[in-house]
């Protein structure tokens, strides 16, 4: 069977960071890795491609088109499925990805034939076999099919981490980057997150329980990565000392010398300083840290498992170890002007290399959604708005316009005065810094237009 796997294009109307955090479509590479044995598969990355899906279909005549999805992609994915059906209604349309897992109902639409709520080797092979044979017969675990009214078998599951085939995106790979590191690959070493912060989707996607991905799979995957930089997408790379040590022994054993970027918790940085020091000697270059706020009461509300003082300690440790910090904060909807200036002072004292501040987003299905339901500025179905970059909760301490102004000023302040530009130019090169800056400008422009509108 000829199968086309598609990543939708960037959503222009959404506020995203994907100009400078832009990774390969790892999920599609995994699907490719499994299906290539028995089918003729191709990946079409519309975040890079310039031709339309319609033209691509004319060129390669697929029998099935599979599309991956994130929260803001819903309408685009549906449009693409309609485009496929308009071209040839015999082509099977299949949707998977994070949004299909978190909210499969969003894809209950006449143009969508099958939705993968969760994906593993068994259900993947089974569906495409049945499609090739021309008969579905019955429902399949993890898949909601139009012909069965999108009903599920009720068996629960999560996405399986399978061996990706990195060669499937060969022609795109030089474009994939993470901040100043380009090209950069992305992979995962361990899943889950026992910190279970209240606002976070990530542990809900992968589960509370932490565990390592099969080390043999990791080795085979690591061996195929040619890029000099790997972004490890684990929720908390510093979940335990054993985990960091297991990774170090794996890369040392394989003689891997690369730059590594990880997401790390404040707690882990404090507890496993010595293991992190060894990791720095083996290539750790930057840590993405969620400091979130400058108020202990909010950290407790978020169930964050760290304090303002812990944030200082973690920042000090990473500075001492010479690792860059890419810090993220969440603007609380009840902040007033004094809170924003306190945040600016706090960021200045933590001295991160890069900072991003996004408004608190009570994603539908999170317990927080109920709490803020009556203050929501948009509907759950305004999919493009749920980008984690747009203000979603009506502020209580100031007007919405002023709130956008404070976000804009704070982002400008930290980017111009706090983040160390000269150090960054040395590290990432002028061209990369210009690219990051242009990406930020797009977000700034959107903030300005939202400020004017409100
Ligand atoms: C890497 C990553 C990215 C990459 C690209 C990911 C991609 N799929 O293209 C980049 C950096 C571009 C990115 C951008 C964004 N991201 Co992001 N990202 C991640 C991250 C760190 C890992 C995702 C991943 O690769 N998982 C591993 C793969 C293997 O899983 P998977 O894609 O789900 O694939 C599996 C199955 O779903 C299935 N599958 C997937 N697609 C398909 C298709 C078919 C046909 C089939 C059959 C199966 C199938 O097969 C795979 C194997 O089991 C997660 C956090 C996390 N840890 O989950 C956030 C995350 C997914 N991102 C998130 C967000 C919000 C965004 C942005 C909106 C952020 C922003 N404001 O800029 C943008 C949107 C970009 C856009 N559309 O313009 C949210 C998602 C919320 C949601 N409900 O969707 C997450 C959970 C982070 C968070 N904030 O909590 N992201
Ligand atoms: S530590 Fe990070 S990944 Fe884990 S639950 Fe908290 S915010 Fe989510």
TrEMBL record:
Coiled coil segments of this chain: none
SUPFAM superfamilies the UniProt entry points to: Radical SAM enzymes
InterPro entries per the UniProt record, alphabetical: Aldolase_TIM (IPR013785), BchE-like (IPR051198), Elp3/MiaA/NifB-like_rSAM (IPR006638), Methyltransferase_Class_B (IPR034466), rSAM (IPR007197), rSAM_sf (IPR058240)
Cross-referenced Pfam families: Radical_SAM
Keyword Iron-sulfur on entry: yes
Chain ranges of the Radical SAM core domain: 179-401
UniProt entry keywords in alphabetical sequence: Iron, Iron-sulfur, Metal-binding, Methyltransferase, S-adenosyl-L-methionine, Transferase
UniProt cofactor(s): [4Fe-4S] cluster
Tree of life domain: Bacteria
Name of the protein this chain belongs to: Radical SAM protein
Organism of derivation: Lutispora saccharofermentans
């Amino acid at each position: 069977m000829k199968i086309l796997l598609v990543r939708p294009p960037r959503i222009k109307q959404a506020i995203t960071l994907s100009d400078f955090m832009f990774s390969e479509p790892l999920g599609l590479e995994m699907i490719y890795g499994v299906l290539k044995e028995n089918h003729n598969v191709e990946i079409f990355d519309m975040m890079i491609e310039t031709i339309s899906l319609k033209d691509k279909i004319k060129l390669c005549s697929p029998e099935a088109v599979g599309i991956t999805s994130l929260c803001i992609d819903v309408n685009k994915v549906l449009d693409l499925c309609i485009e496929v059906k308009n071209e040839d209604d015999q082509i099977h349309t299949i949707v998977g990805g994070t949004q299909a897992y978190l909210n499969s109902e969003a894809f209950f639409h006449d143009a969508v034939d099958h939705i993968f709520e969760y994906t593993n080797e068994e259900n993947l092979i089974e569906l495409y076999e049945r499609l090739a044979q021309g008969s579905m017969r019955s429902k399949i675990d993890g898949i909601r099919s139009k012909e069965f009214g999108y009903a599920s078998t009720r068996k629960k599951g999560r996405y399986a981490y399978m061996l990706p085939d990195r060669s499937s995106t060969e022609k795109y790979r030089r474009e994939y980057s993470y901040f100043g590191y380009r090209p950069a690959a992305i992979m995962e070493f361990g899943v889950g997150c026992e910190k279970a912060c209240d606002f976070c989707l990530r542990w809900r996607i992968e589960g509370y329980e932490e565990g390592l991905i099969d080390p043999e799979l990791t080795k085979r995957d690591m061996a195929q990565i040619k890029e000099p930089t790997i972004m490890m997408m684990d929720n908390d790379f510093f979940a335990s000392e054993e985990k960091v040590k297991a990774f170090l022994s794996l890369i040392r054993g394989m003689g891997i010398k690369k730059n590594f970027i990880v997401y790390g918790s404040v707690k882990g940085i404090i507890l496993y300083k010595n293991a992190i020091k060894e990791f720095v000697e083996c290539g750790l270059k930057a840590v993405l840290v969620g400091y979130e706020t400058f108020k202990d009461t909010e950290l407790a509300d978020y169930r964050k498992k760290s304090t303002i003082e812990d944030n200082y300690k973690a920042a000090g440790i990473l500075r001492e170890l010479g690792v860059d910090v890419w810090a993220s904060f969440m603007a609380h909807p009840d902040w007033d002007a004094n809170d924003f200036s306190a945040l600016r002072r706090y960021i200045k004292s933590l001295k991160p290399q890069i900072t991003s501040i996004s408004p608190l987003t009570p994603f539908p299905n999170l317990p927080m959604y109920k709490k803020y339901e009556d203050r929501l500025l948009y509907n759950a179905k305004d999919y493009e708005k749920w980008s984690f970059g747009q203000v979603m909760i009506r502020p209580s301490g100031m007007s919405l316009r002023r709130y956008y102004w404070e976000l804009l000023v704070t982002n400008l302040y930290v980017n111009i005065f706090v983040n160390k530009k000269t150090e960054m130019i040395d590290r990432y090169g002028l061209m990369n810094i210009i690219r990051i800056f242009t990406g930020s400008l797009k977000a700034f422009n959107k903030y300005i237009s939202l400020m004017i509108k409100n």
